[in-house]
Amino acid sequence: MKELPLTEPVFLILLSLAGQPRHGYSILKDVDDMSRGRVKLSTGTLYGALRRLLAGRWIERFKEDDRPRGRQAYRLTALGRRNMQLEVSRLKRLALVANLRVARKES
Amino acid sequence: MVSLYRWLLYLYPAAYRCEYGEEMMGVYREAEEERNNATALQRSAFFLREIAGLVRGALQERWWSTFGSNFSTPFSTGRFAMRSEFRFPKSAPMLMTIILAGIALAIEKARTIEAAVDGHAEPSLFKGVVIIFVGAMAAAVLVWSVLFLLRRSGMHRLGEISAQEAPHDIEN
After folding, report:
1. Rounded Cα gap, residues B46 and B33, in angstroms
2. Average of pLDDT values for B4-31?
3. Could you give the C-alpha distances from B168 to B71, B73, B82, B162, in angstroms and in order?
4. What one-character-per-residue DSSP string does B137-159 give?
5. Interface ipTM
6. Which CATH class is domain A8-106?
7. Shortest Cα–Cα distance, B119 to chain A (Å)
8. Does B170 contact A97 at a Cβ distance shorter than 8 Å?
9. How many CB atoms within 10 Å of residue B89?
10. Where do the domains of chain A lie?
11. Distance between CA atoms of A1 and B5, rounded to whole angstroms?
12. How far apart are CA B60 and CA A48, in angstroms?
């Protein structure tokens, strides 16, 4: 798949949406929490990524019943979820190889 | 800072602003409110990160609206995939952009104060500063584009160096 591997901001945004639909500020906070403060997205970075993800149909806009004005939520599409799973599988394989090599080196 | 943020949003294409501008302002306000009790250093880091993200994102959107999204850019904003390539040193132009934006804002504020003291309004420098700013960024992008097309940019030079190294197998 030519879109993989994903950049870290995109991966974290998708990971944030994997659990539930979120609006922009909630994504920023969740990415900050998941990375333990290491990755801090700016609004420019976030919305650049959201725009590309919307164009690629990896995410879609989600209508919340009690949505305040100016606040838009997003959620993963089936395509986005599948690509996310592919990326997670790729990272798992890489982590497995890394563990094997480190264990071999230590022994 | 909200005013500066709103001003920098004008760097984006009009269609982008219509679609995301209000949303981005809302998210920025929420993020700024959360930092009311943060230290001065944390607030400064937040503002610089936001300004740099806006400028970089705006350049990316302008680039894509001109050349299309299939044309590679050195900016990682919004790009899906990682690529093994040299990262063009963005810190220098970003810092220069921030400094220029700060100077432009300071000049505008000074002229406003001067007009209030003197009692007469002078023509605003806002348009002139924006034109110079956008012109300078456009010139920088044009020069880099020419280098890229000639395959003489930093990306290609270091890519050639990297290609000379022995390949590493991930798995045996």
Report:
1. 12
2. 91
3. 29, 27, 18, 12
4. HHHHHHHHHHHHHTT-SHHHHHH
5. 0.82
6. mainly alpha
7. 39
8. yes
9. 10
10. 8-106
11. 37
12. 8
